[in-house]
What we know:
The chain has 502 residues and is α/β, with parallel strands linked by helices. It contains 19 helices and 17 strands. An 8-stranded mixed β-sheet has the order 9-16-15-14-10-11-12-17, with helices on both faces. The chain is globular, with a radius of gyration of 24 Å. Keywords: Cell membrane, Lipid biosynthesis, Lipid metabolism, Membrane, Phospholipid biosynthesis, Phospholipid metabolism, Repeat, Transferase, Transmembrane, Transmembrane helix.
Amino acid sequence: MIKRRIEFLFVIILATALYIMMFSGFSSFIKLIFAIIYGVIILISVYSLMLENRSAPHTLLWMYVLVLFPLLGYFFYLYSGQLYLKGYLFKNKRSKDREEWLKLLNRVKAPSLAFLQDNQQVFAKYASRASLTSISTASRTTVLNNGQETFSEMKRKLRAAEKYIHIEYYIFRSDRLGKEIIEILIEKAREGIEVLFIFDAAGSMSLSGGDIAKMKSAGIKAYPFSPLKYGFFNQKFNFRNHRKIVVIDGESGFVGGLNVGVEYLGEDDSIGFWRDTHLMLEGDAVYTLHTIFLLDWEYVSGESVLKKRPHPKPIEEGELDGAVQVVASGPDTQQGIMSDFFYALIASATKSIWIASPYFVPNEAIRTALRVAAVKGVEVRVMVPEINDGFLTQYASRSYFSELLRCGVEVYSYKKGFLHQKIIIVDGNLASIGTANMDMRSFHLNFEVNVFLFGTSSIRDLIAHYEEDTEDSELIRPVAYYKRGYIERTKESFARLFSGVL
């Protein structure tokens, strides 16, 4: 708290110093004193940044921003989330979450993974050591293709709930789809079923206060994650909860790329067809997904609910299907864990790597892994939307095509609509699906959750859908790409400058 107040005081001092230096009628001596004060604060910030031992290019970038952009640079640095990636922000949540995950690891005996193939064993060895969540062989997964299939199944499960519904979304809109789900939640709450609802304060700004009040009056407990009205002063507003979690009776769970809004059904004419993928979990993996929700719930509500959580309905022995691991990432977990998981998954490949991502702004480690894999002869495919919903993300993504194409990576531009799914498929028997994009926000700022699949039958569905998506995409030819005009190159180079904060 003291440190936060000091930093806010620094903003005021910098603004005062800048005004006196540039606009006041004070003497040159007074202006010099305030120039020195301004310089000392910037030097303190630069020194603090240097001590964090980030990558040299990233550190230099922020040093340039602090020095070259008076006041604005410091303000952006302070409130962009860069200052507290390794600091005390979310420290209490991180400590409590870690304690709970350690308990979770000791809940059941680690299953034998001897049935996994060699490449799966390589990744499983890393995954079991790197994360505090266990790998489950007592789970079942079902791939849900696009919004119609996802929300039809989700609403069916919601209506069948008998004990509780726990739901968490980044974007939840008060449109036709949102109101339909709200009515189901209200109906179940009036039946005496517990309904807990978390919505991200920034992503769900279009969720009306009237709908929130209506839910609460029906007995639904609803809380925003990181309210914006407090975010300016505690610098949390740039850290968003990007998770999409639904847990019903501890027996089924939903996670993936789809938020709640009519655009996710393809009903927004300004966007058109929406291509996305969700996953339904059953069995032991639901317990891990539920734990992630409950840890978030305790954080936003202050209630103690973890001890009351029920155990999931077990999957019968004859129904076992591969292995599943649910991994949470964000400021409340080990820094950069999702990026490390993506890297390890890609590095384990011996035959193929298929990636689909709406926001493809990979860090250097992942780009290197993709290039090395392609040069080794591994088939590497990257699929991105033809038209993105942001200028910077679209052209920053395209700026990486050149180095990938030179190494033999196949880059596909999805043309049927907006591609929003976040999928990685390796060797046809390993996969990742969840909420995390392949960009710096998902790696360092957002709260995310992904499911990693080891030889499950659901991977076959992911492969089939990816092949269908390939038919709706255009393969970018290296020669044609290299002939693009200088205007396109300029846009890409400019957008790439912001890759560190996208």
